[in-house]
Amino acid sequence: MTDLSAVARLEVWRRRLDQWLTYVPYGALVCSTLLVLISSNVPHRPYPLIAVLVVTTLGWLLWWIALHPLWVDDRGRMGVFFAGVVVLIYLLVWCSPLFGFFAWTGYLFTAYALKGRLHRAIGGTLVAFATGLAQAGGIPVSSWSYFAVVLFFNLAIANAMTFLTTMTHEQSAKRAEMIEQLAEANAKLAAALRENEGLHAQLLTQAREAGVHDERQRMAGEIHDVLAQGLTGIVTQLEAADAAATDPAAWRRHLDTAKGLARDSLTEARRSVQALRPQTLEASALPEAIGEVAAGWSGRNGVRAELITTGTPRPLLPEIETTLLRTAQEALANVARHAEAGRVALTLSYMEDVVTLDVRDDGTGFDPAAPREISAAGGFGLAAMRERLLRIAGTLEVESEPGAGTAVSACVPAITLEAAA
Ligand SMILES: Nc1ncnc2c1ncn2[C@@H]1O[C@H](COP(=O)(O)OP(=O)(O)OP(=O)(O)O)[C@@H](O)[C@H]1O
Ligand SMILES: [Mg+2]
């Protein structure tokens, strides 16, 4: 950054100097003319001729430089301009040697109009001859030996000037190129930054959308597993109470069960709002919790449900245990709702890398491949179960056939609390 501003400042100064130098020839021409007018002892050609030449020179400079500044890049035009300037300089020096002051500005035109070392060397030599002639007393030359010495000095000056001008121009071109490259790099950097910002915003939006989707899925699962299941159980118990109106003991039992279900569902609903794990898992380990769920379900539905645990039970990540418990609850709820089963067997197996839960019933069975629609009546349970398992890198398999019972198998990674810590 510092480099760029330093180079740019130098370039501004160079341009200002160039601008200032453009006024010098006019000043030198006016001064030379005034000197001719006041120095009556220096020989000169007739004033009208001088006036014509001075006016022509002024016009020539104004036309080529002030009025057409863009012609500076046209090599052909600049060649014509320079040739004209050289002719006018020689004519003016021929009119009076005092125009040597103006002749000197020919070096400036060499730098302005000519490109390349050779052209500038030729231009500088022509100007050096003119200034040499003026310094040697004008045309015709009175002393050739004196002229030779003066010419030698002028040629030395011309060469030095040519060398310096070429160097300055080359450096200036390099600086301009450098500024351009830096500006280009800056623009590229700015574009890359803008692009990055866009990508960042896009990533944020995607992450937000993914978060919203995940949370919506989680809430839908919770509503299904906690509220809908609880309400289904309550409705079933109330219907049973209705049917047992003549048997006060049975009626009371169904009502109490409905009350208990309502209370449990309320507790679970509150816990899921706070994203806490189920109450049963808070109090006992997973095998006991599933055993309690099975026993409660069995008591309510009058169907035998047994849990067998194999392997060595060990505490798993809360999210994994909750998922297995919900799987057992939904599988049992399905048996109660759809299977008309006489017996349910639950198997919880702790293996080295995975833990599986099988829920088998001997009920009516169904065709798992048959297309199923999610509607107000339900149809969300198995899909929600699969989603939940997927979130913890688990899998679900449903094996069933009409008349041959149903087996629901969940398999989850056995990530223990210790391993996760
Ligand atoms: N154990 C089972 N025995 C017989 N049929 C079953 C069993 N489990 C599931 N089904 C069948 O699979 C369908 C889909 O079950 P799913 O749990 O997805 O939905 P649902 O129980 O009908 O409604 P929801 O669970 O959303 O309240 C059920 O409608 C039922 O026909
Ligand atoms: Mg269901």
Give the helix level as a range of percent: 55-70%
Largest sheet: 5 strands, mixed
Which strand order spans the largest sheet, edge to edge or round the barrel? 1-2-3-5-4
Sequence of secondary-structure elements: HHHHHHHHHHEHEEHEEH
Shape by Cα distribution: rod-shaped
Q: Uncertain spans, ≥5 residues at pLDDT below 50?
A: none
The radius of gyration is: 52 Å
- Derived from helix and strand composition plus strand pairing, the structural class reads alpha+beta
The total beta strand count reads 5
Catalytic activity: ATP + protein L-histidine = ADP + protein N-phospho-L-histidine
EC number: 2.7.13.3
Domain Histidine kinase: 324-416
Transmembrane segments: 20-40, 47-66, 78-109, 121-138, 144-165
